[in-house]
Design brief:
By secondary structure, the chain is an alpha+beta fold. It is 25% helix and 25% strand. It has helices at residues 81-91, 129-141, 215-231, 252-269, 301-321, 335-339; strands spanning 13-21, 24-32, 39-44, 51-52, 68-72, 96-97, 105-106, 111-113, 160-161, 164-165, 167-174, 180-188, 239-248, 281-290, 325-327, 330-332. Strands 1-2-5-8-4 form a five-stranded mixed β-sheet, covered by helices on one side. A five-stranded mixed β-sheet has the order 3-14-13-12-11. A hairpin with a 2-residue loop joins strand 1 (13-21) and strand 2. Helix 1 (81-91) crosses helix 2 (129-141) and helix 4 (252-269) crosses helix 5 (301-321). It is globular.
Length: 342
Protein backbone atom coordinates (compact mmCIF):
# COMPACT_ATOMS: atom_id res chain seq x y z
CA UNK A 1 0.00 0.00 0.00
CA UNK A 2 1.34 3.42 -0.97
CA UNK A 3 0.49 6.84 0.44
CA UNK A 4 1.66 8.97 -2.53
CA UNK A 5 4.55 10.36 -0.51
CA UNK A 6 8.31 10.28 -0.16
CA UNK A 7 7.89 7.61 2.51
CA UNK A 8 6.75 5.14 -0.16
CA UNK A 9 10.49 4.60 -0.71
CA UNK A 10 11.08 1.90 1.90
CA UNK A 11 13.14 3.07 4.85
CA UNK A 12 12.82 6.80 4.16
CA UNK A 13 11.07 8.83 6.86
CA UNK A 14 9.99 12.46 7.07
CA UNK A 15 9.55 14.69 10.12
CA UNK A 16 8.37 18.27 10.49
CA UNK A 17 8.92 20.87 13.21
CA UNK A 18 6.49 23.79 12.91
CA UNK A 19 6.57 27.14 14.73
CA UNK A 20 3.62 29.54 14.54
CA UNK A 21 2.27 32.39 16.66
CA UNK A 22 4.03 35.08 18.69
CA UNK A 23 5.90 36.30 15.62
CA UNK A 24 6.72 32.82 14.30
CA UNK A 25 5.77 31.43 10.91
CA UNK A 26 8.52 29.01 9.96
CA UNK A 27 9.82 25.50 10.49
CA UNK A 28 12.09 22.67 9.42
CA UNK A 29 11.59 19.38 7.58
CA UNK A 30 14.01 16.46 7.86
CA UNK A 31 14.27 13.53 5.46
CA UNK A 32 15.82 10.64 7.38
CA UNK A 33 17.55 7.92 5.35
CA UNK A 34 17.46 4.24 6.34
CA UNK A 35 20.09 2.90 8.74
CA UNK A 36 23.38 2.81 6.89
CA UNK A 37 22.50 5.89 4.87
CA UNK A 38 21.68 6.42 1.21
CA UNK A 39 23.59 7.51 -1.87
CA UNK A 40 22.98 11.23 -2.24
CA UNK A 41 23.47 13.99 -4.78
CA UNK A 42 22.43 17.59 -5.35
CA UNK A 43 21.84 19.98 -8.22
CA UNK A 44 21.63 23.72 -7.48
CA UNK A 45 20.11 25.83 -10.27
CA UNK A 46 19.17 29.00 -8.42
CA UNK A 47 21.61 31.90 -8.45
CA UNK A 48 21.13 32.75 -4.76
CA UNK A 49 21.07 29.45 -2.86
CA UNK A 50 21.39 28.97 0.88
CA UNK A 51 22.94 25.54 1.41
CA UNK A 52 25.19 23.48 3.67
CA UNK A 53 27.42 20.46 2.91
CA UNK A 54 26.43 20.32 -0.76
CA UNK A 55 30.08 20.05 -1.88
CA UNK A 56 30.33 16.77 0.01
CA UNK A 57 27.82 15.28 -2.44
CA UNK A 58 30.01 15.84 -5.50
CA UNK A 59 30.69 12.35 -6.94
CA UNK A 60 34.40 13.23 -7.08
CA UNK A 61 34.55 13.65 -3.32
CA UNK A 62 34.90 11.23 -0.41
CA UNK A 63 31.48 10.90 1.24
CA UNK A 64 29.56 7.92 -0.16
CA UNK A 65 26.28 8.11 1.75
CA UNK A 66 24.35 10.48 4.01
CA UNK A 67 21.89 9.82 6.83
CA UNK A 68 19.63 12.88 6.58
CA UNK A 69 18.76 15.93 4.52
CA UNK A 70 17.41 19.14 6.05
CA UNK A 71 15.02 21.58 4.40
CA UNK A 72 14.38 24.66 6.49
CA UNK A 73 12.92 28.10 6.70
CA UNK A 74 14.82 31.04 8.11
CA UNK A 75 17.01 31.78 5.11
CA UNK A 76 20.73 31.23 5.84
CA UNK A 77 20.07 31.62 9.58
CA UNK A 78 17.86 28.55 9.47
CA UNK A 79 20.71 26.32 8.30
CA UNK A 80 21.60 26.09 11.99
CA UNK A 81 18.80 23.49 12.16
CA UNK A 82 21.23 20.99 10.61
CA UNK A 83 23.36 21.18 13.78
CA UNK A 84 20.54 19.67 15.80
CA UNK A 85 20.20 16.84 13.30
CA UNK A 86 23.96 16.21 13.40
CA UNK A 87 23.90 15.96 17.19
CA UNK A 88 21.01 13.47 17.09
CA UNK A 89 22.80 11.31 14.53
CA UNK A 90 26.10 11.43 16.43
CA UNK A 91 24.38 10.17 19.57
CA UNK A 92 23.38 7.10 17.59
CA UNK A 93 26.75 6.52 15.96
CA UNK A 94 25.43 7.41 12.52
CA UNK A 95 27.81 9.23 10.19
CA UNK A 96 31.17 8.96 8.47
CA UNK A 97 33.53 6.87 10.60
CA UNK A 98 36.67 8.90 11.37
CA UNK A 99 38.31 7.01 14.23
CA UNK A 100 38.83 3.60 15.85
CA UNK A 101 35.90 4.03 18.23
CA UNK A 102 32.47 3.39 16.65
CA UNK A 103 31.35 6.64 18.29
CA UNK A 104 33.96 8.56 16.28
CA UNK A 105 31.66 9.69 13.48
CA UNK A 106 30.96 12.91 11.62
CA UNK A 107 27.39 13.00 10.32
CA UNK A 108 27.21 14.70 6.93
CA UNK A 109 23.86 16.50 6.83
CA UNK A 110 23.25 18.47 3.62
CA UNK A 111 20.76 21.29 4.05
CA UNK A 112 19.02 24.00 2.05
CA UNK A 113 16.83 26.89 3.13
CA UNK A 114 13.95 29.03 1.90
CA UNK A 115 13.44 32.70 2.64
CA UNK A 116 10.55 33.30 5.03
CA UNK A 117 12.08 35.89 7.37
CA UNK A 118 9.54 38.13 9.05
CA UNK A 119 6.47 36.46 7.64
CA UNK A 120 5.17 35.77 11.11
CA UNK A 121 5.95 39.31 12.20
CA UNK A 122 9.31 38.77 13.92
CA UNK A 123 12.37 38.85 11.65
CA UNK A 124 14.43 37.04 14.30
CA UNK A 125 12.00 34.13 14.70
CA UNK A 126 13.74 31.44 12.70
CA UNK A 127 14.68 27.75 13.04
CA UNK A 128 17.69 26.75 15.11
CA UNK A 129 19.39 23.55 16.25
CA UNK A 130 16.48 22.71 18.55
CA UNK A 131 14.06 22.97 15.63
CA UNK A 132 16.18 20.60 13.59
CA UNK A 133 16.36 18.12 16.45
CA UNK A 134 12.58 18.22 16.87
CA UNK A 135 12.12 17.50 13.16
CA UNK A 136 14.51 14.54 13.07
CA UNK A 137 12.95 13.13 16.24
CA UNK A 138 9.55 13.37 14.56
CA UNK A 139 10.92 11.53 11.53
CA UNK A 140 12.45 8.77 13.68
CA UNK A 141 9.21 8.36 15.64
CA UNK A 142 7.07 7.97 12.51
CA UNK A 143 5.94 4.56 11.33
CA UNK A 144 7.47 3.04 8.19
CA UNK A 145 5.53 4.18 5.14
CA UNK A 146 3.58 6.77 7.13
CA UNK A 147 1.62 9.49 5.37
CA UNK A 148 3.44 12.84 5.27
CA UNK A 149 1.59 15.99 6.41
CA UNK A 150 1.45 18.57 3.63
CA UNK A 151 0.76 22.27 3.31
CA UNK A 152 1.73 24.76 6.03
CA UNK A 153 4.01 22.47 8.02
CA UNK A 154 7.75 22.17 8.58
CA UNK A 155 9.83 24.11 6.10
CA UNK A 156 6.63 25.08 4.28
CA UNK A 157 5.07 26.84 7.28
CA UNK A 158 6.01 30.33 6.07
CA UNK A 159 6.30 29.50 2.39
CA UNK A 160 4.59 31.59 -0.28
CA UNK A 161 4.29 31.24 -4.05
CA UNK A 162 3.92 34.77 -5.36
CA UNK A 163 0.84 36.19 -3.63
CA UNK A 164 -0.47 32.71 -2.71
CA UNK A 165 0.33 30.56 0.29
CA UNK A 166 2.88 27.86 -0.45
CA UNK A 167 3.98 24.89 1.59
CA UNK A 168 5.21 21.31 1.61
CA UNK A 169 3.98 18.77 -0.89
CA UNK A 170 4.86 15.19 -1.75
CA UNK A 171 4.08 12.55 -4.39
CA UNK A 172 5.26 9.12 -5.55
CA UNK A 173 4.97 6.58 -8.34
CA UNK A 174 5.85 2.93 -8.88
CA UNK A 175 7.39 2.07 -12.25
CA UNK A 176 6.59 -1.06 -14.24
CA UNK A 177 9.92 -2.45 -12.99
CA UNK A 178 8.69 -2.17 -9.39
CA UNK A 179 11.08 0.71 -8.64
CA UNK A 180 9.59 3.51 -6.54
CA UNK A 181 10.36 7.16 -7.25
CA UNK A 182 9.06 9.89 -4.96
CA UNK A 183 9.52 13.56 -4.17
CA UNK A 184 9.00 16.04 -1.37
CA UNK A 185 9.07 19.77 -2.13
CA UNK A 186 8.95 23.10 -0.36
CA UNK A 187 7.16 25.52 -2.70
CA UNK A 188 8.27 29.06 -1.88
CA UNK A 189 8.56 31.05 -5.09
CA UNK A 190 8.33 34.55 -6.45
CA UNK A 191 7.28 32.93 -9.69
CA UNK A 192 3.66 32.04 -10.39
CA UNK A 193 2.11 28.59 -10.10
CA UNK A 194 -1.06 29.61 -11.95
CA UNK A 195 -1.82 30.54 -15.53
CA UNK A 196 -2.99 34.17 -15.26
CA UNK A 197 -5.48 33.73 -18.12
CA UNK A 198 -7.26 30.67 -16.75
CA UNK A 199 -6.30 30.21 -13.09
CA UNK A 200 -5.19 26.64 -13.81
CA UNK A 201 -2.13 25.42 -11.94
CA UNK A 202 0.76 25.14 -14.39
CA UNK A 203 1.68 21.79 -12.90
CA UNK A 204 -1.73 20.34 -13.76
CA UNK A 205 -1.36 21.22 -17.43
CA UNK A 206 1.03 18.25 -17.67
CA UNK A 207 -1.32 15.81 -15.98
CA UNK A 208 -3.98 15.66 -18.68
CA UNK A 209 -6.86 16.21 -16.23
CA UNK A 210 -7.42 19.95 -16.18
CA UNK A 211 -10.67 21.49 -14.96
CA UNK A 212 -10.81 25.18 -15.77
CA UNK A 213 -12.28 27.52 -13.14
CA UNK A 214 -15.66 28.99 -14.00
CA UNK A 215 -15.69 32.56 -15.27
CA UNK A 216 -17.08 34.29 -12.15
CA UNK A 217 -14.78 32.28 -9.86
CA UNK A 218 -11.72 33.17 -11.89
CA UNK A 219 -12.67 36.84 -12.17
CA UNK A 220 -13.16 37.10 -8.41
CA UNK A 221 -9.78 35.45 -7.85
CA UNK A 222 -8.06 37.81 -10.30
CA UNK A 223 -9.58 40.81 -8.55
CA UNK A 224 -8.44 39.56 -5.14
CA UNK A 225 -4.91 38.94 -6.42
CA UNK A 226 -4.79 42.38 -8.01
CA UNK A 227 -5.78 43.96 -4.71
CA UNK A 228 -3.04 42.03 -2.91
CA UNK A 229 -0.46 43.07 -5.49
CA UNK A 230 -1.45 46.73 -5.13
CA UNK A 231 -1.16 46.71 -1.33
CA UNK A 232 1.82 44.42 -0.76
CA UNK A 233 5.56 45.04 -0.83
CA UNK A 234 8.11 43.19 -2.92
CA UNK A 235 7.28 39.61 -3.83
CA UNK A 236 9.03 36.91 -1.79
CA UNK A 237 12.42 35.64 -2.82
CA UNK A 238 12.13 32.65 -5.10
CA UNK A 239 13.20 29.24 -3.79
CA UNK A 240 11.75 25.82 -4.45
CA UNK A 241 13.47 22.95 -2.67
CA UNK A 242 13.01 19.26 -3.39
CA UNK A 243 14.20 15.84 -2.30
CA UNK A 244 13.72 13.08 -4.87
CA UNK A 245 14.16 9.56 -3.52
CA UNK A 246 14.17 6.13 -5.11
CA UNK A 247 14.85 2.55 -4.10
CA UNK A 248 16.81 2.01 -7.32
CA UNK A 249 20.48 1.09 -7.03
CA UNK A 250 21.96 4.29 -8.47
CA UNK A 251 25.61 5.26 -8.53
CA UNK A 252 26.53 8.68 -7.19
CA UNK A 253 26.82 9.99 -10.76
CA UNK A 254 23.41 8.59 -11.66
CA UNK A 255 21.93 10.15 -8.51
CA UNK A 256 23.34 13.52 -9.54
CA UNK A 257 21.71 13.14 -12.95
CA UNK A 258 18.42 12.40 -11.17
CA UNK A 259 18.75 15.60 -9.13
CA UNK A 260 19.40 17.55 -12.32
CA UNK A 261 16.53 16.20 -14.40
CA UNK A 262 14.15 16.63 -11.45
CA UNK A 263 14.56 20.38 -11.89
CA UNK A 264 12.46 19.99 -15.04
CA UNK A 265 9.57 19.20 -12.72
CA UNK A 266 9.97 22.59 -11.04
CA UNK A 267 10.09 24.39 -14.39
CA UNK A 268 6.77 22.80 -15.39
CA UNK A 269 5.02 24.03 -12.27
CA UNK A 270 6.63 27.40 -11.39
CA UNK A 271 7.38 30.33 -13.71
CA UNK A 272 9.99 31.77 -13.63
CA UNK A 273 12.64 29.61 -11.96
CA UNK A 274 16.43 29.50 -11.72
CA UNK A 275 16.96 33.27 -11.73
CA UNK A 276 19.76 35.11 -9.94
CA UNK A 277 17.75 35.57 -6.74
CA UNK A 278 16.46 31.99 -6.76
CA UNK A 279 17.70 29.30 -4.41
CA UNK A 280 16.21 26.38 -6.33
CA UNK A 281 17.89 23.19 -5.10
CA UNK A 282 17.12 19.50 -5.62
CA UNK A 283 18.61 16.65 -3.60
CA UNK A 284 18.48 13.02 -4.71
CA UNK A 285 18.56 9.93 -2.48
CA UNK A 286 18.95 6.34 -3.65
CA UNK A 287 18.57 3.50 -1.15
CA UNK A 288 19.83 0.85 -3.60
CA UNK A 289 17.33 -1.86 -2.70
CA UNK A 290 16.26 -2.56 -6.30
CA UNK A 291 18.91 -3.27 -8.93
CA UNK A 292 18.89 -1.79 -12.41
CA UNK A 293 19.74 -3.82 -15.51
CA UNK A 294 23.54 -3.63 -15.45
CA UNK A 295 23.68 -4.48 -19.16
CA UNK A 296 21.49 -1.57 -20.20
CA UNK A 297 23.17 1.85 -19.91
CA UNK A 298 19.79 3.50 -20.47
CA UNK A 299 18.09 1.66 -17.59
CA UNK A 300 18.05 4.78 -15.36
CA UNK A 301 16.00 6.74 -17.91
CA UNK A 302 12.65 5.69 -16.48
CA UNK A 303 13.78 6.80 -13.02
CA UNK A 304 14.96 10.16 -14.38
CA UNK A 305 11.67 10.82 -16.17
CA UNK A 306 9.63 9.82 -13.12
CA UNK A 307 11.69 12.11 -10.87
CA UNK A 308 10.63 15.17 -12.82
CA UNK A 309 7.00 14.02 -12.89
CA UNK A 310 6.71 13.48 -9.14
CA UNK A 311 8.32 16.88 -8.43
CA UNK A 312 5.64 18.57 -10.55
CA UNK A 313 2.88 16.69 -8.75
CA UNK A 314 4.40 17.44 -5.36
CA UNK A 315 4.36 21.18 -6.10
CA UNK A 316 0.69 20.95 -7.11
CA UNK A 317 -0.06 19.05 -3.90
CA UNK A 318 1.82 21.66 -1.83
CA UNK A 319 -0.23 24.51 -3.26
CA UNK A 320 -3.51 22.64 -2.96
CA UNK A 321 -2.80 21.60 0.64
CA UNK A 322 -1.81 25.10 1.78
CA UNK A 323 -4.18 27.07 4.00
CA UNK A 324 -4.54 30.86 3.98
CA UNK A 325 -2.51 32.88 6.47
CA UNK A 326 -3.06 36.43 7.70
CA UNK A 327 -1.03 38.04 10.46
CA UNK A 328 1.41 40.78 11.39
CA UNK A 329 3.88 39.63 8.73
CA UNK A 330 1.38 39.69 5.86
CA UNK A 331 -1.56 37.91 4.29
CA UNK A 332 -1.47 35.09 1.77
CA UNK A 333 -4.68 33.53 0.44
CA UNK A 334 -4.59 29.89 -0.53
CA UNK A 335 -5.32 28.53 -3.98
CA UNK A 336 -8.23 26.60 -2.51
CA UNK A 337 -9.66 29.76 -0.96
CA UNK A 338 -9.59 31.53 -4.31
CA UNK A 339 -10.67 28.72 -6.61
CA UNK A 340 -12.30 26.15 -4.35
CA UNK A 341 -11.46 22.46 -4.17
CA UNK A 342 -11.46 21.72 -7.88
Amino acid sequence: MTVDALTDVAGVRVGHATRTGDGWLTGTTVVLAPEGGAVAAVDVRGGGPGTKETDALDPRNLVQKVDAIVLTGGSAYGLDAASGVMAWLEERGRGVRVGPDPAHVVPVVPAACVFDLGRGGDFRARPDAATGRAAVEAAAASAPGAAVPQGCVGAGTGAAVGPLKGGVGTASTVLDSGITVAALVVANAAGSVTDPETGVLYGELFGGRVTYPEGPVHEAARQRLAEIAASSGPLPLNTTLAVVATDADLSRAQAQKLAGTAHDGIARAVRPVHLLNDGDTVFALATGRRPLDAGDPLAPNAVLAAGADVVTRAIVNAVRAAEPVAGPGGAWPSYGELYGGR
